[in-house]
Amino acid sequence: MKIAIVGEGGHSKVIQDLISLLNGYEIVGIFDDKYNELELKEKHYIGPIKAINQFCSFFIDTKVIVAIGDNRIRKSIVSRLSLSGSTYITLIHPSAIVSQKATLGIGTVVMANAVINSDTYVGDHSIINTGAIVEHDNNIGDFAHISPNATLTGSVQVGDGTHIGAGATVIPNLTIGAWAKVGAGATVIHDIPDFSTAVGVPGKIVTKKMEV
């Protein structure tokens, strides 16, 4: 499987390591706006993000992953590229445990030692990061990020674009709204509205604003 990576920051490094562990997978291109033109460098191509469309038209069997950790930037790039859903690949680290009854969207990445249990749905272009635990019957939207060692207990609803910080815990049956943020180490015991930020133990809302 030939893979083109969009982005060459820290998150991209982790995804490159993940791909190196998958038999039959090969990185054929890395695209980032620090590059000015499409060119072959050593074992793969490099180029600006806008070149990915041209690249995929030449190498039609190539799959794409957007390796950008920031949820808003990741969404912006996906919108900008306008690639078909079938172009994107979903990646699962070999050490991750994903229930056969879980559903993962296109372009989503599951990192090392993460656990996703039965009847959980994870949307498109989301990140389940290192050691995160996503229990049964959770529903996670598109462009979300569940950070390292965060825990979503059963039946948690997580909106599009939401970021759950490292080591945070969300108790069962709660709703974390779209584009909300939960601080690292927080324990969430109440619903969090859209576009809000919650921190602390127990988690308290410290900012709330409407999207513009």
UniProtKB/TrEMBL annotation:
Molecular-function annotations in GO: transferase activity
SUPFAM superfamilies reported for this sequence: Trimeric LpxA-like enzymes
Active site as annotated: 136
Pfam family, one: PglD_N
Binding locations of acetyl-CoA: 145
Site (Increases basicity of active site His): 137
InterPro entries the UniProt entry points to: AcTrfase_PglD-like, Hexapep, Hexapep_transf_CS, PglD_N, Trans_hexapeptide_repeat, Trimer_LpxA-like_sf
PglD N-terminal domain mapped to chain residues: 2-81
Signal sequence, start to end: none
UniProt keyword Repeat present: yes
NCBIfam families given in the database record: NeuD_NnaD
Name of protein: Acetyltransferase EpsM
Species: Litchfieldia salsa
